[in-house]
Amino acid sequence: MKSKINLKRLAAAGLACGSLLYGSAALAADTIKVGVLHSLSGTMAISESTLKDTVLMMIKEQNAKGGVMGKKLEPVVVDPASDWPLFAEKARQLITQDKVDVIFGCWTSVSRKSVLPVVEELNGLLFYPVQYEGEESSKNVFYTGAAPNQQAIPAVDYLLNDLGVKRFVLAGTDYVYPRTTNKILEAYLKAKGIKEDDIMINYTPFGQSDWQSIVSRIKEFGGEGKKTAVVSTINGDANVPFYKELANQGVDASDIPVVAFSVGEQELSGIDTGPLVGHLAAWNYFESVYNDANDKFIEQWHQYIGDDKRVTNDPMEATYIGFNMWVKAVEKAKSTDTDKVAAAMIGMQTPNLTGGTAVMNKNHHLSKPVLIGEIQDDGQFAVVWQTDGLVKGDAWSDYLPGSKDLIADWTKPVMCGNYNSKTKTCGGQAAQ
Amino acid sequence: MPRVLILLLVLIGASGLARADLHEAVAGLGSRSFDDKAQAIEQIARSGDPQATVILDALESRELVEDRANQRIVLGEKGGDGWVLKDPISGEALGTVGSRDARPVVINNRLRELIHNLRAVAALASANPLERRAAASQLVGNDDPVVLDALRERQREEDNPLVSGVIDTALNIAVLRNPDTELAVRLNAIDAVAGSLEPAVRNVLRDRFSETDASSEKRAAQKALASIDARAERYQMADTLFFGLSLGSVLLLAAIGLAITFGVMGVINMAHGELIMLGAYTTYMVQQIFPQGHEWSLLVAVPAAFLVSGFAGVLIERLVIRFLYGRPLETLLATFGVSLILQQAVRLIFSPLNRTVVTPEWMSGALQINPVFSLTFNRLYIVFFALAVFLLLQLVLKKTRLGLQVRAVSQNRNTARGLGIRRERVNALTFGLGSGIAGIAGVALAQLTNVGPNLGQAYIIDSFMVVVFGGVGNLWGTLTAAFGLGIANKLIEPMAGAVLAKIVILVFIILFIQRKPRGLFPQRGRAAEE
Amino acid sequence: MRHSDLKTALTDRAAKVFIGVLFSAVILVALLNLLVPVDSALHVSSYTVTLLGKYLCYALLALALDLVWGFGGILSLGHGAFFALGGYAMGMYLMRQIGDRGVYGNPNLPDFMVFLNWKELPWYWQASDHFGLTLLLVGLAPGLLAFVFGWLAFRSRVTGVYLSIITQALTYALMLAFFRNEFGFGGNNGLTDFKDILGFSLQADSTRVALLIATALALAGAFVLCRWITGSRLGRVTLAVRDGESRARFLGYRTEHYKLWIFTLSAVLAGIAGALYVPQVGIINPGEFSPLNSIELVVWVAVGGRATLYGAVIGAILVNYGKTVFTGVMPEAWLFALGGLFVAVTVFLPQGLVGLASDLLKRKRRTPPTAPQTTNKESPHEPA
Fold it and tell me: For C72-81, what is each residue's pLDDT tens digit?
């Protein structure tokens, strides 16, 4: 008998605990909830926390202008803690528990891949603001960072045509973005007549800190008479020791320039850039670009964050564009319903921060200008080259055998993220 | 190369341009096209005006700016909230403008190289033979006829054998590259450069070998290449060895503090990495306090980091570890908690962003022994620094009273107490000593890697591997293990790549511990049991 | 629990309470999720279902660690590796179930192999087409690794701190290996975008509930098994080994055999936990091998109270629930809370929350001498 009573009591206690899990169901309908899914702790906090602040700043500004459709925006910030399964869990929490209408979030590819099935299942809306490897287009995701053809390929064109580079070192951290980018570049370079012997590919683990042997090999590879450049997809923390080693071994930007796709103003803010002057980066935005919109954005950022030394960077611009587009799309659709907003997004135009206009294409990728900057001793980039017009983001690369026939088109009648233009079929998730 | 002329003109000191033209040339730097800018630089250099060097220097150091309101190119110096402007030619003050109202004239690598080459040609006439040699080295492989003329001219007057050797190489390469030179001259040139390790020499010899029709030249080139390659290979081995030593010294620095706290005291200090991190942040703070003293601030940072981390260590010992002696596995958990707290505290105080630690001038660059072999200064100093710290620690343990007490307590707690040693005090000080050394390691690591909240985590597992592999409680074991693993890693890396090298080393250690559970140099006697 | 066999293990009071609580909670959640309409205040969202499922997987993992640490005295800092191996085994099966529904529509290869230009499926993926073989692999992969590792380590008498550190090195080496794209497990991105299991869609509420119930069953089964083992002769010898290995050895026991057996079993349990975890959270990646995860796991057990089995379960659920709440409400404070918990538990609560609770109960019962005696007294085995 006794044990039975205990059982009941314990079950009741369990129920009480369980009820805590319900969280606060959305009560008010007079606000529009905006989910922010960026890591605030763990290894990615260094990059992602800035984007959280950017979104909050944009929300504050929008609310000061009267909100969206007369409703205030309400941010819901969660911390996925650089833990990939947690990204999926928090995305589910944002959509089902907090009932947010849109999510701004993710940085790494793996976090996006983790969130993707969740937003597709729950028909949520995700704005992803970071340059990435492409090979994806989801009905529920808008990609406001660069695809490989908006960063890597123009950068290599610059090396080939303007600097006369004949040998390439493709150095990257061993994960999917560098792997894919380098695959694309290898195919592209070979198509441009660069021989296999003149391409060196090297992968290093995350957080690589001892670059002595690799830099010395790069030096040797570059000392064989042909103009050599390094195309770097080295990620995050590994960059500082890499550049330090380059500088110390005397690899000068005029001998062997390094063009990086993951090094921006924020990454440079942790490096003594004196010895790096002249190395390159390719992005769609640099803080040093001069125009009124950018000046205003920088000033607003400094005011919001309370620190004049904080820099702005490309993913912040991508967040800025994504946020403004979403606001306009909601107002156009007169609804926060995912399908309506997604339909309104296509063809949407908003000003970017480099003095032009960003356009959202049918494949959920933006048209953007591509800029190449040289590192300066103050940690900024000086723009040395830029594309004439906008480059349309490709979801599927033309240079990979598996994807050259695929296109993404989220308008009727195709409505497909991976439409095979040869077989005329939709390979993956079809539209309902 | 279209910029041939200017070099010549600079050399012979021609001064043909009027000031009006100089004005025009400076204005030309405002163009968006880099070709126009190159032309403007040519013109400025050609002017021979004493102001020309000032302007080109300013251009390189980003102190030549475009005044946006007046659309003119002027000298600008960052001051206060904006730019202090000066006329580039007359030097007349032009007032100040806001920081975004003027922007530096952008130059690219090509222009920068042009300016460098200009300087190198000019520096051939320097009074300092080291500068002459550096200038000549920079011009090796340059086949611009004007540069070659300049080199020939210099060669006639050069009395320093080192400088003239470099110039000889440069000229001989030019001879070999010229398809019109006679065979005999070419053979002579091959003979002359055969001893040089310059990459340009190797390339030109390789070209000769594949292109020539004359069998005598082919043979000569082949022989020269073989001897160069053999020498280069020897230096490459030396290079790998140095890389290994350098990695070993980093491992030694990271592990040596742990060898005390873990090896001597039996505390599994998972917060060891964070104590290293504190040292690195101390370096950053010291540089913030002495913004002008980057050259010597490291000398302050070393004792400061020792004190900061040492103090943190004493605190950790007094607040947490003293409750846990004799329960090593519990110290692991508790100190892991401490490490999380320290990381997050640093993240809140200094933000999650990495901090910039400036490398002093004397630690930058490399000791260039020959064109294929150089020792980077920062790593070289760190090797010596690690050994110095190691020896100092040995001295402390062997020669001081504290050292004696530490050894006594670590060998037998109870007997030591019986001998009247105040165990509490010795424990706290020993832990402080180990932690302080971790702090010193942080100063060195700040020169090599990121100073951020995750710094410590990158080194903690490696540190434990070194201590366990070397044999717990044995400092010489730690030394051997650190250098052994460092060199092994660097020997494997070229074959297997960086990731596999690391995995191979880890698996090796795991298997080694299975065979010799107490490491390379096991401690004997009772103290070793549990 | 002197005369212990499976029957007494099943009927012993702790097991009954444990299974009772577990199943009343799980069944309640299941019913509220499936039967109560979505807009009702009583409806439990599928978010909560998967969250609970995740906690139970962690609980099973904690239970596995408690078996080796609490009872065997082996502090493994590599249990995250066994968990992840089980997870990968299941993840591979789920990847194969995607078939031609991947983004490239290739029926023979998973997406990541297509864009890395792999031509055919590597041999170690062959078993993953069959669910039965996958189940075998879930147990075999971690079990075999633990067996080989343990056989080497225990035979050469690697104990205590050294063992902990080399288990940490083991999981670290595996993490580096799985990060490598050449290894054929999807590199950093790992395995994700699963569609269905045994033909049931993973996105259906009923599948989620079924997985939750499966997890609960596994946990209950493992609990009874551990209860039985710790009460058996094997369990008592293991305790003796923990409390004085040399003594046990002198008494004629082949201590390494006992340790090896319990270590391998524990690794298999951890692998099962991982296999149940992956379909519920939807991704497995090398981050699971991170040494940090394994250390955090130790704290769950320490918080709950080791050598009690149910303490490990309680600890795992409490700490993870705290993590869910904190990372939502005060993200900056979570690491402080976790760090503080590590320190506080090891310094002040060596027996964990369960130890604290039983101390309090004892004190309370001492005052009224007529209070009934608890039968559950032997739990905190004091280390010698």
Answer: 889 999 999 9
The predicted structure's pLDDT at residue A360: 96
Q: State which residues form the domain around B251.
A: 235-365+401-528
CA distance B525 to chain A (A): 38
Can you name the residues that pair with A72 across neighbouring β-strands? A31
pLDDT higher than 80, residue B17:
no
- Interatomic CA distance for residues C262 and B447, integer angstroms: 47
Number of structural domains chain B divides into: 3
Compare all CA atoms of chain C with the CA of A203 and give the residue at the minimum distance: C180
Q: Which of B204-208, B341-345, C296-300 has the lowest mean pLDDT?
A: B204-208
The burial class, CB within 10 Å (0-12 / 13-18 / 19+), for B515 is exposed
Residue A22 Cα to chain centre, angstroms: 32
C197 interfacial to chain A (CB closer than 8 Å): no
pLDDT in tens, B145-164: 878 888 888 888 888 888 88
Tokens of C380: 């905190």
Q: Is the pLDDT of residue B4 over 70?
A: no
The verdict on residue B219 lying in a domain is no
CB–CB of B510 and C350 under 8 A? no
Residue C384 lies in a domain: no
Which helix (H) or strand (E) covers residue B483, if one does? helix B475-496
Mean pLDDT over B19-23 rounds to 78
Number of structural domains chain C divides into: 1
Which residues of chain A have a CB within 8 Å of the CB of B353? 46, 266, 269-270
Q: C371 in a domain, yes or no?
A: no
Most confident segment among B63-72, C111-120, C132-141: C132-141
The answer on B500 and B406 residing in a single domain is yes
Q: How distant is the alpha carbon of residue C48 from its chain centre?
A: 19
ipTM confidence: 0.85
Phi, psi of B449 (to 5 degrees): -140, -170
- Per-residue pLDDT for C384 more than 50? no
* Average predicted confidence (pLDDT) for chain B: 86
Do B337 and C343 lie within an 8 Å CB cutoff? yes
Chain C, window 87-116: residues with a beta carbon less than 8 angstroms from a chain A beta carbon: 100-106, 112, 114-116
CB contact under 8 A, B494 and A217: yes
Query: Which residues of A fall within a CB distance of 8 Å from C338?
Result: none
DSSP string covering A63-131: HHTT-BTTBEEEEEEE--TT-HHHHHHHHHIIIIIS--SEEEE--SHHHHHHHHHHHHHTT--EEE-S-
Identify which of A115-124, B22-31, B496-505 has the greatest average pLDDT.
Answer: A115-124
**C179 touches B at CB < 8 Å:** yes
Tell whether B346 and B416 lie within a shared domain.
yes
pTM: 0.87
Predicted local confidence at residue B507, as pLDDT = 93
Higher pLDDT, residue A428 or B18: B18
- A: neighbours with 3+ CB pairs under 8 Å? B, C
Q: Which A positions 122-161 lie with beta carbon below 8 A of chain C?
A: 135-136
Query: Which chain A residue shows the shortest CA-CA distance from C284?
Result: A85
Say if residue B271 is in the same domain as residue B208.
Answer: no
pLDDT tens column, B106-132: 888 888 888 888 888 888 888 888 888
DSSP code for C287: G
Q: Which of A24, A41, A113, A175 to mutate to test binding with chain C, by most C CBs within 10 Å of its CB?
A: A113
Distances (CA, A) of C344 to B65, B262, B320, C213, C261: 60, 21, 9, 34, 33
CATH architecture of structural domain A152-260: 3-Layer(aba) Sandwich (3.40)
Question: Is pLDDT of B409 > 50?
Answer: yes
Mean pLDDT across B225-232: 90
Cα dihedral: A300, A306, A310, A311 (round 10): 0
Residues B93 and B13 in one domain: yes
**B485 lies in some domain:** yes
